[in-house]
Design brief:
This protein is mainly β and 113 residues long. It has strands spanning 2-6, 9-12, 17-24, 32-38, 45-51, 56-58, 66-71, 76-81, 90-97, 101-103, 107-112. Strand 4 and strand 5 form a beta hairpin.
Length: 113
C-alpha cells in the first residue's frame, strides 16, 4: 500500500484546511485509515480514524472541529479541519491498517496566531 498525503499549508488561527490521503496498491487489504500528527518535540498522536464500514473515531481535542471522511471510489480519505488553533501545528500523517500498517509521507500544517 502506498499513501500520498496532501493539502497542508499555512493558515491563520480560525481558518480551515482540507487534507487528502490517496491510497494505491493493495487497497483491498485496508481495514482502517486514519490521520495522526506530530508536533515538534512531541510524540505522534491519533487525530481521527475511519473504518472500511464507516465507523469513525476522533481524538477529544478535535471533536467538533475536524471531520474525517472517505471516498471509497477514489480510495481517498479526507480530513476537513476547521477552527484551527496554533496548537494544531504539526506534521500530519495518514496511516492505513490491515494485514500490515503503512504510513504516508506527512504534510505540514502550520497555524499562525
Amino acid at each position: 500500500v502506498q499513501l500520498q498525503a496532501s493539502g497542508g499549508g499555512l493558515v491563520q488561527a480560525g481558518g480551515s484546511l482540507r487534507l487528502s490521503c490517496a491510497a494505491s496498491g493493495s487497497i483491498f487489504s485496508i481495514l482502517v485509515m486514519g490521520w495522526y500528527r506530530q508536533a515538534p518535540g512531541k510524540q505522534r498522536e491519533l487525530v481521527a480514524t475511519i473504518t472500511r464500514s464507516g465507523i469513525i473515531n476522533y481524538a477529544d481535542f478535535v471533536k467538533g472541529r475536524f471531520t474525517i471522511s472517505s471516498d471509497n471510489a477514489k480510495n481517498t480519505v479526507f480530513l476537513q479541519m476547521n477552527s484551527l488553533k496554533p496548537e494544531d501545528t504539526a506534521v500530519y500523517y495518514c496511516k492505513s491498517v490491515g494485514r500490515y500498517s503503512y504510513w504516508g509521507q506527512g504534510t505540514q500544517v502550520t497555524v499562525s496566531s
